[in-house]
């Protein structure tokens, strides 16, 4: 007997195969049982016709409980009515383990209940679709940067200093020293770029920020490229090409998952470089025109501001040249305006907010040291970082893309908590 997976059944049309699966759901009449099967690679309907199988097989099909594990054997058939395109005409069932009282029934459940059962909720068709899209974005990320000559580098998760101060970091003891969980690998990636030219990292980051918004997680994953001999404008081009690449990869390889989520694909089809760009100054003017008269030059943007700005565009939009006072110490000042820095946030359309933050980095030793002191940071803790400006300093730029926000936007889901397998939220460390 040929063993295969649901994703591979297209190779065996009109042939008999065996699939190891779980019963996601079922319905039956007196003569036919319809089994919704999943195996991790996808979902398929198994049809058991009473007149075509032994009586014990049909009774077993009616008796199997939700999320029981089984082996099913049957003939693969094309089915134009199915989004997947195939179904299985079942003639044999072997129960591996019969599940009892599976807690997530087909009825509607509250979010807190589902989050308490996240280890099981991941099995649902919608959650499965989001994890597949997340995986495709990760796959496409590696492909894009490898094709563009970047080297993957892994920065440490435990650090003795922070790129943006320590007020929102998780503190721990590192034997007899203070240490923090990383909020960004950027500083280390700058060191790597001075050795390898173009590098990127992909790993977990942590923010001890007491936020409960739909855009925030305590633990999230960041893709952080850093490029030597790269000016601010050069970095923007890489960013828009990268984001376009991700969207097109999902459109190409996750069409079924996007359908499952009910995503409006026409909006994603418009996401191709180049992206529009406006300055912070322009953004302030736009907000005043939209009635946000309480925001002044020098104020940071919140979610409502970003959403209103993004509504004018059907692609992500760069907001460039923020005030120096709003940004971290390492950003290169504008050559003609010391009050703003060479930075940009990339704001996704449809209200999903910032998905990328990036800048050109200061490469002048004296200026960087001054900025560290002005931010009240310990110069000794950043000695190694200052060394990069003493031994062959070059213009360099980089950015960070938040994976979960990007998955949420491309998937069209409302809250980032569904875009990571086991979310860490302000009041959630379980499961």
Automatic annotation (TrEMBL):
Keywords: Aminoacyl-tRNA synthetase, ATP-binding, Cytoplasm, Ligase, Nucleotide-binding, Protein biosynthesis. It comes from the Bacteria. The gene is asnS. HAMAP family: Asn_tRNA_synth. Belongs to the class-II aminoacyl-tRNA synthetase family. It comes from Bacillus aquiflavi. CDD domains: AsnRS_cyto_like_N, AsxRS_core. The lineage of its organism: Bacteria, Bacillati, Bacillota, Bacilli, Bacillales. Homodimer. Residues 131-431 form the Aminoacyl-transfer RNA synthetases class-II family profile domain. The keyword DNA damage does not apply. This is Asparagine--tRNA ligase.
């Amino acid at each position: 007997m040929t063993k295969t997976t649901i994703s591979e059944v297209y190779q065996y049309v009109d042939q008999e195969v065996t699939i190891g699966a779980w019963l996601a759901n079922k319905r039956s009449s007196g003569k036919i049982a319809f089994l919704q099967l999943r195996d991790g690679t996808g979902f398929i309907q198994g049809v058991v016709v009473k007149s075509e199988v032994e009586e014990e097989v049909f009774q077993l099909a009616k008796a199997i409980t939700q999320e029981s594990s089984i082996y099913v054997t049957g003939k693969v058939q094309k089915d134009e009515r199915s989004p997947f395109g195939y179904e299985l005409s079942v003639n044999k069932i072997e129960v591996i383990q019969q599940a009892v009282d599976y807690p997530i029934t087909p009825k509607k459940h509250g979010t807190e209940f589902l989050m308490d059962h996240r280890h099981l909720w991941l099995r649902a068709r919608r959650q499965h679709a989001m994890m597949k899209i997340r995986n495709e974005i990760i796959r496409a990320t590696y492909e894009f940067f490898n094709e563009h000559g970047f080297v993957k580098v892994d920065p440490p998760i435990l650090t003795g200093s922070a790129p943006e101060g320590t007020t929102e970091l998780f503190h721990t003891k590192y034997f007899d020293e203070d240490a923090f969980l990383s909020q960004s690998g950027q500083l280390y990636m700058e060191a790597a770029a001075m050795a390898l030219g173009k590098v990127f990292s992909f790993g977990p980051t942590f923010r001890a920020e007491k936020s409960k918004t739909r855009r925030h997680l305590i633990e999230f994953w960041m893709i952080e490229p850093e490029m030597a001999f790269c000016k601010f404008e050069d970095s923007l081009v890489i960013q828009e090409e990268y984001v376009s690449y991700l969207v097109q990869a999902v459109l190409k390889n996750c069409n079924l998952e996007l359908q499952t989520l009910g995503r409006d694909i026409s909006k994603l089809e418009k996401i191709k470089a180049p992206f529009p760009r406006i300055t912070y100054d322009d953004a302030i003017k736009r907000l005043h025109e939209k009635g946000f008269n309480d925001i002044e030059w020098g104020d940071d943007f919140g979610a409502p501001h970003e959403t209103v700005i993004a509504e004018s565009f059907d692609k992500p939009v760069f907001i460039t040249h923020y005030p120096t006072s709003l940004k971290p110490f390492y950003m290169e000042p504008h050559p003609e305006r010391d009050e703003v820095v060479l930075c940009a946030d990339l704001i996704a359309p449809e209200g999903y907010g910032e998905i990328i933050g990036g800048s050109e980095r200061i490469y002048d030793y004296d200026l960087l040291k001054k900025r560290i002191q002005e931010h009240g940071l310990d110069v000794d803790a950043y000695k190694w970082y200052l060394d990069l400006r003493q031994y062959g300093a070059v213009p360099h730029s980089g950015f960070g893309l938040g994976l979960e926000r990007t998955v949420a936007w491309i998937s069209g889901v409302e809250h980032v908590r569904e875009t990571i397998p086991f979310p860490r939220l302000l009041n959630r460390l379980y499961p």
